[in-house]
UniProtKB/TrEMBL annotation, chains A, B:
Main localization (coarse): cytoplasm
Protein name stated in the entry: Asparagine--tRNA ligase
Family membership noted in the UniProt record: Belongs to the class-II aminoacyl-tRNA synthetase family.
Lineage: Bacteria, Bacillati, Mycoplasmatota, Mycoplasmoidales, Metamycoplasmataceae
Originating organism: Mesomycoplasma ovipneumoniae
Subcellular location: Cytoplasm
Enzyme Commission number(s) from the entry: 6.1.1.22
One family name in Pfam for this protein: tRNA_anti-codon
One Gene Ontology term, aspect cellular component: cytoplasm
Ranges of residues in domain Aminoacyl-transfer RNA synthetases class-II family profile: 135-439
Keyword set, alphabetical order: Aminoacyl-tRNA synthetase, ATP-binding, Cytoplasm, Ligase, Nucleotide-binding, Protein biosynthesis
Uppermost EC category: ligase
One annotated GO biological process: asparaginyl-tRNA aminoacylation
InterPro entries documented for this protein: Aa-tRNA-synt_II, aa-tRNA-synth_II, aa-tRNA-synth_II/BPL/LPL, Asn-tRNA-ligase, Asp/Asn-tRNA-synth_IIb, NA-bd_OB-fold, NA-bd_OB_tRNA
Length: 449, 449
């Protein structure tokens, strides 16, 4: 029977001494005239299936020219060996070559290649162990996020990506259409958030979320910025700031726990080549209460360590840079930390204005190694306050009239946040460049294939 | 305890005679000085929760100004009434108004509004029963698709949306960047397919899929075209045409069956207001073998009914129009039908060229009411054949060199298809305009909010 390698490894007892057929790619091959060993991988499992070819059972000349990367189909009897590390092996009776290499230049061999070199071949790099691990984790995490929201009773909602107004009220957007190009007959950009539209759907469905690609014409070439990335944005009616922070924490803790259980082999490998404490650190986060600090207190705490920063000008109203965010979580709290109540001048127009007249009910969740992982807020539900803020910021009121109108009919207030999927994946894998957690990354001046 | 209406309806016995708190929106209100009835909906369930207010238990003046659309929180004791249609009711002891209407102009009242009028208020229309049903089904179907692929061992893969080459080799694309705008320093468009990139990932992971927004600068204003829609694209290495057709059929049958079971109330409502045979038709499809016909035979069959068509010129090489596609499935096969082996001139460059020298190993799955729901193919794995076809069509070989290179290393061939999510939703709901199954639809000259 034709079966995936993952299926065999999950239930080796079911396949013990049975004849199986497996299709996959050669990741290693060695041996001599009497016996050969092929490590086969079909992508279903991080681990390879060991295939043994003995000259008694099969004409070894069939295998003598095989190379790493080639696609084959093998049949043979599987033996479960639970006592050994490799779980079992197949004694091959039949081998068919399904896809040869044209020449000896297949770039993925069993030697280390730098991440920079691999970034030049995004169409091949997932055939290394490192990228197999990352991309399998990416897929798992992706699914666990959908599962979390589904189980929590959320409605998945597709926010439009082509938009004629800009959620953040500023920012670098890609322009897709304008009066000249006349497809839509108005300036149309790639949306930077689905939040405004999600707020509309939270009224009526209460709990909604979007999980979709997002675009920023971000010219800074940093480790954590990409022009195209995926974002998770839940929006919940009736929720205030504290409730949405609780949801954010719960989401992270649940999905991280789930992938730690499901993707044991990938984590074992990542710890071998990278951060030895990866899982320990993640589990610690999953099992703790996340600390909370006001922006005002955060500034005070950071001010005591001015000598550590490039940007030393820290005052109420100063924008926290990545170095400050990381210092807060890495050095001061030594764990992820939530900062709340930012000055309204630093945040978008739609956030709930606190009674102090200075701050808004916003939060950022900061994590070690990255800085901001999540940004969210309670939304301003008061029509007049929101209208005033839109005018104050010089935004066109008529562009946001529909959004203002959401305040007119049965709006109990709502809260939500944005979680960058790739930043989460960086946090979970310990990989420190966003280009290495996206299959085909897009950054400024850089669009390969 | 605070609870969702869906939770109560799933386990009414757990909440019977218990005090509960529910937050939601008023969908109906009636009564007199002694007793009032509020129908409450919180989006978790299609059905409303009946709330009874008696002057003995609560000061009815609290409720006298309430209106449809307003947000409230109620507490009271729930009584399960399994014998009655409404499943149970709450005797309200406490009521808090959480979001009032500013005036009496809330557009969603208990009277019929035309779909055209509702299209002008996409930020409110989901608060009608019809759009609540459609959007809840959309969310369910979305999740079931991810679940299907996960269970089948697929790796979710994010194809890039910003691309510098165009998968279909032609077609109307949105341009995001060019040499002048200089963000990427080359012509960059919104991708029309993730397939080419998915093929790269199928090598190594074997089974991959993408499910993401797709863009077409499509100027024809039809019932089934949108400028932005979601597409499901699986790609499987080692699969040939027949195997990928089997996967397509299985996917449709599984996810449709799943939502029929999960979304009973939504279907009951859709059948009440629309197609009475909706579920019967869908179940029949799920339980049958899907018929298959070659393009050549399809042309012959259609030629016998020329008088039925606007486009009567039917010959080997003619592009099937929607009228032909629908006639095939509605009149000739009276069920969904798969057409295979199209002339290569009608299809994209990457399809496997059959031995007859004229056709490619492509398939379209046609369904009643819509026409093409799925299009897919076995891919051309032979480097020379593919190279030749790219040149023949006048496409720039250097743009596709990376794609050609996929043929060089361990490529056993792959097959895949594209399924328009919204077309599937139209098929499943019986809704006949794509604008009514997308929260905020984008079409030519039409981008509201």
């Amino acid at each position: 029977m034709s079966v995936s390698i993952n299926e065999i490894f999950i239930h080796p007892e079911l396949y013990d001494q049975k004849k199986i057929t497996v299709q996959g790619w050669i990741t290693n091959i060695r041996g001599n005239l009497k016996i050969m060993f092929i490590e086969l991988n079909d992508g279903s499992s991080f681990k390879n299936l060991q295939c043994v070819l003995k000259s008694d059972n099969i004409d070894l000349s069939k295998a003598e020219n095989l190379a790493i990367g080639e696609a084959i189909e093998i049949s043979g009897v599987f033996s479960s060996t639970p006592e050994r590390q490799q779980n079992g092996e197949v004694l091959v009776e039949n081998l068919e070559v399904k896809g040869r290499n044209y020449n000896n230049n297949f770039p993925i061999q069993n030697q280390e290649i730098s991440l920079e070199v691999l970034r030049q071949i995004p169409h091949f790099r997932h055939r290394t162990r490192l990228f197999r691990a990352i991309m399998k984790l990416r897929s798992s995490l992706f699914y666990e996020i959908h599962k979390f929201f589904r189980r929590q009773g959320f409605v998945n909602f597709s926010a439009p990506i082509l938009t004629s107004n800009d959620g953040e009220g500023a920012g670098e957007t890609f322009i897709v259409d304008d009066e000249q190009k006349d497809f839509f007959n108005k300036k149309t950009t790639l949306g930077v958030t689905g939040q405004l539209h999600a707020e509309a759907y939270a009224l009526g469905f209460k709990k909604v979320y979007t999980f979709a690609p997002t675009f920023r014409a971000e010219r800074s070439n940093t480790r954590k910025h990409a022009a195209e990335f995926w974002m998770i944005e839940p929006e919940v009616a009736f929720f205030d700031l504290e409730e949405i922070i609780e949801l954010a924490t719960k989401l992270l803790q649940k999905v991280i726990k789930a992938v730690i259980i499901r993707n044991k082999d990938e984590f074992t490998f990542l710890e071998k080549v990278g951060d030895k404490n990866l899982r320990r650190r993640l589990i610690q986060f999953c099992d703790s209460q996340v600390a909370q600090v006001t922006y005002e207190d955060a500034i005070k705490l950071l001010s005591e360590h001015k000598d550590q920063f490039e940007e030393k000008n820290l005052f109420f109203g100063a924008d926290l840079k990545t170095e400050h965010e990381r210092f807060l979580s890495e050095q001061i709290f030594r764990a992820p930390v939530v900062v709340i109540n930012y000055p309204k001048s630093l945040k978008a127009f739609y956030m709930h204005q606190n009674d102090d007249g200075q701050t808004v009910a916003a939060f950022d969740l900061l994590v070690p190694g990255i800085g901001e992982l999540i940004g969210g807020s309670q939304r301003e539900v008061r029509y007049e306050k929101l209208h005033e803020r839109i005018s104050e910021l010089g935004m066109k009121v008529e562009d946001f009239q529909w959004y203002l109108d959401l305040r007119k009919f049965g709006n109990p207030g709502s809260s939500g946040f944005g979680l960058g999927f790739e930043r989460l994946l960086m946090f979970v894998t310990g990989i420190d460049n966003i280009r290495d957690v996206i299959p085909f990354p897009r950054t400024n001046k850089n669009i390969l294939m």
